[in-house]
């Protein structure tokens, strides 16, 4: 979502004469778009800011001013703190305010021309009533054949470990007509694959194009599939609790919907799921996977896992390993629990030691790597359609994505970029597949 947000910010700034600089030391404005989900992401903000300050000092010494902005969820959560800790930052603004970027920029420039200095930065961490999507300029320049499209934002679930409901705010779904308009525009500019984005994308409940009804994600996907020229649809991230029959049936009927589903479960233990406030059990999660597999036997799953949540016993962790063994994931992300300020889990008194978290994460990741490699190796000998996205590291090599979101490399000339064509899979590793051009 931050990639999508950064693209929108670039588009908002384009009419003011800004374009993307190739190197930070050539920039007049540096926006650090930040993440707050785990402590590591937040620490990185301050170390990156230290480096950016050196660039600012060097530019000022050479007679060129440079503005520094911090955007995104760390800006939202730590606004004042950033201003205090890094006084050279000119602007701090949250994810719901960046449609105001031109005004904020003008204000920052005015303050700088008046001498700038500590305490003069522009801070905006409001949750405005107006909807930022209504203020974005038309999508002008998609980055390639595969694009992101935000349809939902924020979250009302309040899992006990998570900062999203506080940093991104309450759940909001864009009206279907405006999503469809953006999708048609992307396709007219050469996009072949759209990934629908939302912190809780399948909680989507957008106003229907006609009348007062509301569309769920399944209905929206059916409408998007009618767009000629759009060949692949994906969506991320979904919550098990929000899976409904309509979404399951979309996987049965809509051929453009790719057979890969990221459906995070976080833990294999019902006790931990309850403590996390995830609002479903393992039996319910497995029943959902079963329903998906019944209608779409080709569908593969990916998940997020948190290890070392407060109170997680060795037995709870074993339950996570057992779940992984039962499901066979094609891919997964796993993290050590990271206490986040202001969340209920951070206040619990049964935290797990760092050593135990590290050791459990290693065990889980080793199993997940094994499953991912095994899944990739299953592809050897198969013919897979690939959307070719960009040149690879070697000459005449392209990189693209399979329907299962695997990265595929093949020797092909660059005229294939932006199109889908099939290759025969000849090799597979943990992270990628090698394809060979079909001989006719
Ligand atoms: N809405 C999605 C996830 C959004 S956050 C869902 O409910 O599944 C992305 C992932 O970051 C989460 O799935 C979780 O695995 C991880 N995460 C969130 N907060 C975390 C924390 N405090 N510590 C470690 N991982 C966390
Ligand atoms: Fe965070 Fe996802 Fe839970 Fe919402 S549903 S609180 S985004 S983990």
UniProtKB/TrEMBL annotation:
Span of the secretion signal? none
Instruction: Tell me where in this chain the MTTase N-terminal domain is found.
Output: 1-110
Cofactor binding comment, as recorded: Binds 2 [4Fe-4S] clusters. One cluster is coordinated with 3 cysteines and an exchangeable S-adenosyl-L-methionine.
- Keyword flag Membrane: no
Where found in the cell?
Cytoplasm
Its recorded reaction(s) are: N(6)-dimethylallyladenosine(37) in tRNA + (sulfur carrier)-SH + AH2 + 2 S-adenosyl-L-methionine = 2-methylsulfanyl-N(6)-dimethylallyladenosine(37) in tRNA + (sulfur carrier)-H + 5'-deoxyadenosine + L-methionine + A + S-adenosyl-L-homocysteine + 2 H(+)
SMART domains in the record: Elp3
State one molecular function term (GO): 4 iron, 4 sulfur cluster binding
Q: Which residues form the TRAM domain?
A: 377-439
Q: How does it assemble?
A: Monomer.
- Protein name (Swiss-Prot/TrEMBL): tRNA-2-methylthio-N(6)-dimethylallyladenosine synthase
Q: Which organism is it from?
A: Caedimonas varicaedens
Taxonomy, top ranks, is:
Bacteria, Pseudomonadati, Pseudomonadota, Alphaproteobacteria, Holosporales
């Amino acid at each position: 979502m931050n990639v999508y947000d950064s693209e929108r910010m670039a588009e908002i700034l384009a009419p003011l004469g800004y374009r993307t600089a190739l190197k930070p030391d050539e920039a007049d404005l540096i926006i650090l778009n930040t993440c707050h989900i785990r402590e590591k992401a937040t620490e990185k903000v301050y170390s990156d800011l230290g480096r950016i300050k050196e660039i600012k000092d060097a530019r000022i010494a050479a007679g060129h001013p440079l503005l520094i902005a911090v955007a995104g969820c760390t800006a939202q959560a730590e606004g004042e703190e950033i201003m205090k800790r890094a006084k050279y930052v000119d602007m701090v603004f949250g994810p719901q305010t960046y449609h105001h970027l031109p005004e904020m920029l003008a204000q920052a420039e005015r303050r700088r021309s008046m001498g700038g200095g500590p305490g003069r930065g522009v801070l905006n961490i409001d949750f405005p009533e107006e909807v930022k999507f209504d203020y974005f300029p038309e999508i002008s320049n998609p980055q390639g054949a595969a694009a992101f499209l935000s349809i939902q934002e924020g979250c009302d679930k309040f899992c006990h470990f998570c900062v999203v409901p506080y940093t991104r705010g309450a759940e909001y779904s864009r009206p279907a007509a405006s999503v469809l308009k953006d999708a048609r525009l992307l396709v007219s500019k050469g996009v072949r694959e759209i990934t629908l984005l939302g912190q809780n994308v399948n909680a989507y409940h957008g106003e229907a194009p006609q009348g007062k009804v509301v569309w769920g994600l399944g209905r929206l996907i059916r409408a998007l599939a009618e767009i000629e020229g759009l060949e692949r649809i994906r969506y991320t991230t979904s919550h098990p609790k929000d899976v409904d029959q309509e979404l399951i049936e979309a996987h049965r009927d809509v051929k453009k919907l790719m057979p890969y589903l990221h459906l995070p479960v976080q833990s294999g233990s019902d006790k931990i799921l309850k403590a996390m406030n995830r609002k479903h059990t393992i039996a319910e999660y497995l029943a959902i996977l079963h329903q998906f597999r019944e209608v779409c036997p080709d569908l593969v799953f990916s998940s997020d896992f948190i290890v070392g949540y407060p109170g997680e016993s060795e037995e709870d962790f074993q339950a996570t390993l057992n779940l992984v063994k039962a499901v066979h994931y094609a891919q997964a992300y796993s993290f050590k629990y990271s206490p986040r300020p202001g969340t209920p889990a951070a206040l619990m008194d049964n935290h797990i030691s760092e050593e135990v978290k590290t050791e459990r994460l290693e065990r889980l990741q080793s199993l997940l790597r094994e499953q991912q490699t095994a899944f990739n190796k299953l592809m050897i000998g198969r013919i897979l359609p690939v959307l070719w996205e960009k040149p690879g590291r070697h000459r005449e090599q392209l990189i693209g994505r399979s329907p299962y979101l695997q990265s595929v490399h093949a020797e092909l000339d660059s005229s294939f970029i932006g199109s889908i064509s099939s290759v025969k899979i000849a090799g597979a590793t943990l992270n990628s597949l090698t394809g060979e051009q079909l001989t006719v």
